[in-house]
Amino acid sequence: MTGIKVSKPVFPAEAASQEYAASLDAADPLREFRDQFIIPSKANLATKKLAKPGLSPELSTYFCGNSLGIQPKAVSKYMEAQLDTWSSVGVCGHFTDLEGSPLKQWQLLSEQAAASMSRIVGAAPEEVAAMGTLTTNLHLLLASFYKPTETKRKIIMDWKAFPSDHYAIESQIAWHDLDANENMILIGPDEGQHEISTEKILSYIDEHAETAALLLLPGIQYYTGQLFDIPTITKYAQSKNLIVGWDLAHAYGNVEVKLHDWNVDFAAWCTYKYGNAGPGAMGGLFVHEKHGQVDYSAGPDAPQFRHRLTGWYGGDRSVRFKMDNKFKPIPGAGGFQVSNPSVIDLTCLCAALSVFDQTSMADLRQKSLKLTAYLEFLLLKDTDEETRLFDIITPSDPHARGAQLSVLLKPGLLHKVSERLENAGIICDKREPGVVRVAPVPLYNTFSEVFNFVKEFKGALASS
Ligand SMILES: Cc1ncc(COP(=O)(O)O)c(C=O)c1O
Ligand SMILES: Nc1ccccc1C(=O)C[C@H](N)C(=O)O
After folding, report:
1. Is the pTM of this model over 0.95?
2. ipTM more than 0.85?
3. Which regions form coiled coils (predicted)?
């Protein structure tokens, strides 16, 4: 649930056929985006030698964009332009815009990326910074936003947050010489459930309102695929004087969010999943306009601004090279930058963003809703709850999920199913003890691939 109204596509019984899947592909207005990506071939996946892509015409089915997106063709083009910039003009690349390059001078490159990312997360360009990596950015944001006091010092969070988030929060609390066990409030689902209801989250906020300083939740939970009701939870927690942050690792480039309008205090994300910017790519963060202001009313040399851990690249470009040790932050999220960013990382990010620049999250989401609903429809068709060898633990309400469906297999089946999928050239993610996470991505996946996946998946179950 996110406050953005969506509806669930419904399919007729005859939709469970290869022909019907092909007709959905033919009618897909985004189908040409697939050609902007390099889809790993089956032979490439099988070889253990370094090889150029395209070793065979037979492509894999890549349903793992929730872990690592595949490579946009624009990456090599942008990288070549960047390598040529560096080799041809050296240090001058910092301040020179080169005609013919899709990339701005290095001083402005993070702004180029931030402007595109801001459209993806529903923010003003100044509210977004392209920088660092997810967990590091969470630390930087918590350094600014987590200010525990004698009374208000707890952090409300997901009981099974991705471990890196758990460690980050645990260590932030310890950094303030506080006891992590006492100050981490973990919200989980009710016994026997996987979904955490909004009501339950609000009741935790009520219960801990006096002692909690901050709430940090994932926009989409990595394991179950649940999408939380970001605007409702944000508004409620803020009404109880909590600061509200969101980890959008699995939401960025996947679902529509409106961080500015929803008044979120801060957020961070990685760009290597649905964002397709490459393994370990540069991340992004959001700081709401209200927290990013710089007030010069006390004079030009005495700017007032929200405390953060600083470095020279958070400093205004106009004075960055003055070397006078007077920190004047860039107004907005850019003022949270620390170091001069890796231009190579920014180049991959800008290349990946150039694909998003050609469409909108609303259009991508529309296709995504259909792809995932089709996956669910085919999985559940001709099955009943009693005898089914799996459960879909992702909510069936499209407001409460993104592209991913997490399929929990009955004990002992994971290995067999994984093997069959692998042999069929289908790549999706497995999590012990028994979950297969399947993420059809609207930019490059097809309805026919969904159909073939379900055929192989059910074939594996039928032979077990
Ligand atoms: C929710 C979440 N947090 C953190 C991470 C890891 O972040 P980092 O990019 O810092 O390795 C991931 C995925 O790797 C994730 O899914
Ligand atoms: N960075 C990685 C490196 C190796 C393997 C997986 C990852 C992931 O990103 C996992 C992802 N966060 C997940 O939700 O599973």
Report:
1. yes
2. yes
3. none
